[in-house]
Each structure stands twice: as C-alpha cells, then as structure tokens.
Amino acid sequence: MENPPTPENHKETKPALTIHVYSWATPILGLIMLIIGLVAGFLGRPLINQTAITPTANPGASATDNSPTSDRQPELKSLIIEQTRHFIGDDAAPITIIEFSDFQCPYCSRYFVNVWPQINEQYIKTGKVRFGYMHFAFLSQESFWAAEASECAGDQGKFWEYHDVLFASQVGENRVDLNKDNLKEFAADLNLDRKRFDACLDEGKYTSLIQQQTRFLQTLGVSSTPSFIINNQPLIGAQPFEAFQQVIEAELKSEP
Length: 256
Hints:
The chain is an alpha+beta fold. It is about 45% helix and about 10% strand. It has helices at about 25-40, 70-80, 105-115, 115-125, 140-155, 160-170, 180-190, 195-200, 205-220, 240-255; strands at about 10, 85-90, 95-100, 130-135, 225, 225-230, 235.
C-alpha cells in the first residue's frame, strides 16, 4: 500500500471499539470510559497491571466536570504512565511525553527520522523530558511481531536500540521487512543473545502484552498513529518539531 498523502497520521481502518474521542484531551469523559471498561472486565481479558490502573476517582462523578484543574486529569495521566513499560530520560524531568505507535506505520517512521532526534537532543538529554513508548499495533501481523521483538530485545536491555533499528529499517506497510527472519537478524546486528531472543519471539512471550496495550489505548479513544500525550496535552500525527516544541515550552512555563 502506498503512503496516503494526507493527513500526517495513520488512521486505524477497523477499530475494535466505537469510541472516537481522544480522551486525554477530555479527561473526565475518558476516565468514565475507562471505569466502564474496568467494570465490564476490560473486554473480558486481564490488563497489563490490574492494580496499577484501578481508578481512585468516584465512579459517580459528573462527566460535565471537565475543568483543566480537575483532580482527575493527573489521575488519567497516571493511568497511562503506569501502563508504559519503557522510558528514556530523567525520571525527575518536568515533562513526560508518551508516544503511541506502530513500528510498521510510515508516518511513525517519518516522525522518527525527522523529529525524534531533535526532541532527544534538545529535551531528553537536557533533562527536561522523560519519553515513553506504548505499543498500538494494529496494521498487520508484522506490527505485532515487531512490537513483540522490541520487548524481547528489552529483556536484554536494548529496547530503545531495537526501537531505533525497527524505524530506521522500515520501508512501508506490509513490505515483509518486519517478518520474523528479519527481526531475528536485527537482534544479531545488536549482538543480542540469539537463542534467548529467538525463543522469546517464537514462543510469543509478549503477544498478550501487545494485545493488552493496544486494547487499552483503543479504550482511551486512540485511533491513529503516531499519537502523543505531552503531560496532559494531546498531539496527533507526525507533526513537525516546532509543534512539539510549542507544547513542551508551554508546559515548561506552566511548571511551578
């Protein structure tokens, strides 16, 4: 499939749910949706960390209380952070950015090539931003394999190195560049223990985790990649660096 010219993000063509709201932009509605999902058993499957996302808010709170100063806004942010396994940067950084992404998404690769290096140099390495990554693997089986492979690399302390290789090697959707044979070769290139890595990938050690993260984000209303939350501010699509910079600088100025 050729990359669509617009918009600068990749829409999910077959969403599993019918939620169409980016809930971190409207945190109260999102929190209520999340509570409903939890009460219903989160689609009948276990969460990554059931304890971590148990809400402390009053389930009967009004959905009309959507003030930016609402106590529930940081709670929703915390729910997302608790489900994020991989971070880079200073844990004490004033700004937290979390990317929701698919390793097979062309626009995610474009962001990685054009924007990520500037964020890393100007904000992560300077201690201003802590950056996290969550899997939203929805394009095809290769999306799941790549996400699983990154977690297998993470078992050996090289999630971010493998993350970089995946995006740098991507040639587009369903081009067979992220099949299991290639994923194993990437592991060899990073000097990972191939026996351990191959067993992790072939046995599907992280299949359920990738499914759970993807469903978790769908429940929050995420429907395209790449998507980002910068503290509590959403940013959707492969935006230019200046768009990230504007939000980050505004958040830095608002810090006490």
